[in-house]
Design goal:
The structure is a homodimer.
Chain A: E1 3-7, H1 16-29, E2 34-38, H2 44-48, H3 60-64, H4 70-73, E3 75-76, E4 82-85, H5 91-98, H6 107-113, E5 121-125, H7 132-140, E6 143-149, H8 152-156, H9 158-170, E7 177-184, H10 191-204, H11 217-221, H12 229-233, H13 237-252
Parallel strand pairs in A: 1-5, 1-6, 2-4, 2-5, 6-7
Antiparallel strand pairs in A: 3-4
Helix pairs in contact in A: 1-13, 6-7
Bound molecules: adenosine-5'-triphosphate (2 copies) and magnesium ion (MG) (2 copies).
One magnesium ion binds near residues 16 and 40 of chain A.
Amino acid sequence: MTEIIAVANQKGGVGKTTTAVNLSAALALEGQRVLLVDMDPQGNATSGCGLEKEDLTTSVYDALLENIPVRQAIIATSMKGMDLLPANGNLIGAEVELVHEIGREYFLKRCLERISGEYRYVLIDCPPSLGLLTVNALTAANEVIVPLQCEFYAMEGLSQLLRTLRLIKNSVNPRLHMLGILLTMFDVRNNISHQVREEVCRHFRDRVFRTVINRNVRLSEAPSFGKNIFEYDERCVGALAYQTLAKELMGKGGNG
Amino acid sequence: MTEIIAVANQKGGVGKTTTAVNLSAALALEGQRVLLVDMDPQGNATSGCGLEKEDLTTSVYDALLENIPVRQAIIATSMKGMDLLPANGNLIGAEVELVHEIGREYFLKRCLERISGEYRYVLIDCPPSLGLLTVNALTAANEVIVPLQCEFYAMEGLSQLLRTLRLIKNSVNPRLHMLGILLTMFDVRNNISHQVREEVCRHFRDRVFRTVINRNVRLSEAPSFGKNIFEYDERCVGALAYQTLAKELMGKGGNG
Ligand SMILES: Nc1ncnc2c1ncn2[C@@H]1O[C@H](COP(=O)(O)OP(=O)(O)OP(=O)(O)O)[C@@H](O)[C@H]1O
Ligand SMILES: Nc1ncnc2c1ncn2[C@@H]1O[C@H](COP(=O)(O)OP(=O)(O)OP(=O)(O)O)[C@@H](O)[C@H]1O
Ligand SMILES: [Mg+2]
Ligand SMILES: [Mg+2]
């Protein structure tokens, strides 16, 4: 059984890419077969895995528009058990090209159906918008993780995102299930962090991951070396947090 | 003469809204007449000015689609000299509705032409994408400020943004001029911040604002009280930084 998980939030800079890359790596370290899909034209998840976007001859763009079989665009990363379906700037074009297609929401779903079964987890990094690329991710996924930065502005976007998840569930993807809200960049010295945590736990109770990702400068340094946090500094606070998250996630899912 | 300035960067969470709100307030404190336009469906600039999005009966959405004259949607803020053209969730619909219109890039430009002359500065807060709302802002503007968070991932998106600015300049808005890159969330203790600053200054030389906005927790606290930084804590590092930026901006522009 393959769990396809979208990492989504239209608010920018909340830790979607950092979560998608490092949770994938942590799951691979736990012996799971993982595919990371980069659905953001910025291609941050691709460079976070150490790949140069300019060197790519194929990407998720080609697989989406069915120019090539998806397997051809998938590459192995430096992490054993973790593969990547990379993105580059071409992906911007996909949003415009897909908008006139019939069944425009299902292109990624169709793409991933061809390879599901080969991976235990597929994580999809989404761009900061609720456009067609994110809708494709939410249609292909059976679960969603919502990273939430512990800041005031980030709280504001939550109700809009939850409305979109309900719309998707009632239309193109009835099996879509929110796995949980993940608090990120939590700073123990900062009042706002504590206020956001209290408010989120009050409203969402058991739909909040117990694991909280603290602000940790090592997490923002790692991608500049093209490494995930375990390759960069496996004993730091950030690495332990994503390791704990991986264990919590595995505990939530089926044991398939 | 009205200077219309888009605050844009498709990378999320880099300080676009924080800059648009607090630079507008700083310019108003310098005695300028300022209009802040919220072009992000998240409506963060609107709540950063202390307004409840749910209470709005009209918004930039209605003015864009010409349901009402733009003056009717503009409201005064608690800051003397600073008005707001607010946004709410309806704005998500505009992106879809405009895509099939002829001259879809010019809707905001047409809207602002009716009121230009009444303001010395118009600042437009953009969403974290290069979709039609941002394209409308870049078509209506004569200048662009690009906030850049001092982090690795934020650097990656810069070349894509500059390509888009060139495309806009060569097509729908020949007078578009980049005022400068604004370094935000600079943390003196963090190596990455210094590396990003060196690299940006080397590549962009005089197209980087001398003013740097340091990371300052007061800037992230202010919006939770519905206040700009000058109403919340006028002596803090964040307030002084945006005051300095306003003076630098006024020095760059014509004395019109
Ligand atoms: N826990 C953390 N501690 C410190 N820095 C972090 C943490 N998580 C993420 N960052 C840094 O914060 C910035 C924003 O994170 P990231 O790019 O992962 O967010 P995002 O939601 O993917 O952004 P976008 O909306 O642009 O896709 C990055 O520079 C990243 O390195
Ligand atoms: N200089 C700063 N110091 C500390 N916190 C800051 C600073 N500038 C912005 N912030 C905080 O960082 C977060 C991101 O900033 P902001 O929302 O302004 O970015 P944005 O680019 O508008 O995001 P989006 O891409 O979602 O529109 C906010 O919670 C804000 O309060
Ligand atoms: Mg990202
Ligand atoms: Mg914003």
